[in-house]
Every structure is written in structure tokens, then in C-alpha cells.
Amino acid sequence: MNYSQQFLPVRGIVNARDLGGYVVKDGMVVKDRMLIRTAHLAGATDEDLQFLSGIPVTKIIDFRMETEKQGTVDRMIPCAEYVALPVDGSGNAAAEMTEEEKKKFTGQKKFEIKQFVVFAAFNEKAQKIALGMYPTLLFNPECQRQFARFFRQVLDTENGAVLYHCSQGKDRTGIASCLLLAALGADKETIVADFDATNKVYERDVKKYCRRVRLLGGKEDEIAVVKSILGCNTEIFVKTLDRIDREYGSMEAYLKGPMGLTDEDILILRQRYLERMP
User: Fold this and answer.
1) Tens digits of pLDDT across the chain (278 residues)
2) 159, 192, 269, 274: which has the fewest Cβ within 10 Å?
């Protein structure tokens, strides 16, 4: 499959992709323009909003914490319901930072991840957050509760498309996509490919800031933090999926456990978002 075809024709929204076109089991495929993953909508142009309204997107789910919205408040898609569903990818570890560290992270008038990444690469607590994010998102009880609520929001959207996002549309949004694709019957290879596609979007930034960190004396550990914050660490993601298999037995068991999905819920999702391949 050509994954580049799933990028949406928008100018002011980064990493905007459609889950439509992914092939799942039993000869089924995800319907086009029903489940849409993006970065924040603050930079959306009028034309972008008109395009998304025409799909039509009827619900926006925002995974960002309040501090992340500073200067990057979403522009609203006409007639779409907005749902704030904050997910703390730090697992509350950010609360353990000193006041000076918090100021560097959240003190700007506008939240800017690139201003934070060099500081984070050399900060022990920030390193812990960045490299432990995927296990936190999938195993921390509060994160699990929020993603379970995400599924309820999707299930409750009977008409139109659901657009969901975080700041960069990569980690929390990537995990949400992983869980949705798993519920729809996608295999691990497809789930990992969708997750990893984000690295194509942020490849230039990752290379640029890796060079900066190396010039400041950063080694492999520091470089790994940059890759995790500005891109996706697919290796850690795969290891986290393997951990789900070890601890729950299968992704299906995880979906029916912490995510609270029933057989009926999964059937509804598949009837709504899948169609037979032509």
C-alpha cells in the first residue's frame, strides 16, 4: 500500500492522515475519510476548515493538556463538536519537575516543542518521560481510562467523521490510531506502518535537532530523546506492543480489558468503519 495517499490535502495542519484504505482481515478495508488523525488545528486555513467540514467531520477529539494549548488553540470546524480529552503522556512525571524545569517546559506564551527538545535531551526527568511515553500511554491506569473514553466518543458518533489529535499528531494520536486499527482487525504490521509514517513528516526536524544535540556533546541516549520527542520511536513502540501480548495475552484481550470494549462494540465499529474490498 502507498501510505502517502492517506495524507490529506490540507495546508495548515501537520501530519493530517486518513485511516481509510488500510486492509484488515476477512477482505475488508477501512472506509475513506471516516477516521482522521492530525496534529493540532491552530494553523488550519479557512480552506482546510471548509475541506474538513465537507467530509463532514462532526467530532474533534483533542488529547492535549491545557498547557499545550497556549497560543495553539484549535480553529473550529463548522458544525463539529469539540471534545477535550486530555491524556498525560508523562504519567504525572511532569509534576515531579522543579519550578525552573516546569517554566522551561510550559513558561512560554506559546507552547513550542522545538524550544523544549534540546533542554529535554540533557534533562534526566525529561529523558525518562520521553523514552517511557509509550508504556505510560498504554499501561498507566489514567491514560487507559482516557483512551477508553476515546472509544466511547467514537462509538457515540453515529454520523460523520471523527478527527482526533494531540500537539504533533504522533504519540497520543498514534496510540489512538493503533487501538482503533486493532479494534477494526488490522494486523501488527499495518499498525506499526501507520505509526512509523509520522517519521516521514518530521524527518527534517529530527535530523536538524540531532545535529544540535551532538554539537552540545550529546551521545546516543540524548539523540534517542530527540528522536522520541520530535519523531516516533518505532522500536520502543513495537516493544510496547509485545508487552501487551505478554501481559494481556493479545491485543484483543487488552481492548476488552482496559479499553472496556465488548464484542458488540467491536461489531459496531467494524460495521460502521469497514467495507469490503472492491
Assistant:
1) 556 679 999 999 999 999 999 999 999 999 999 999 999 999 999 999 999 999 999 999 999 999 889 889 999 999 999 999 999 998 765 555 555 655 554 444 444 677 678 888 998 888 888 889 999 999 999 999 999 999 999 999 999 999 999 999 999 999 999 999 999 999 999 999 999 999 999 999 999 999 999 999 999 889 989 989 999 999 999 999 999 999 999 999 999 999 999 999 999 999 999 999 98
2) 159
Q: Which residue has the cell 462509538?
A: 155
Q: What is the SS3 assignment for 82-151?
A: EEECCCCCCCCHHHHCCHHHHHHHHCCCCCCHHHHHHHHHCCHHHHHHHHCHHHHHHHCHHHHHHHHHHH
Q: Is 136 in contact with 168 (CB distance < 8 Å)? A: no
CATH number for the 3-276 domain, one of 1.10.8.60, 3.90.190.10, 2.30.110.10, 3.40.50.2300?
Answer: 3.90.190.10
pTM of the entire predicted model: 0.91
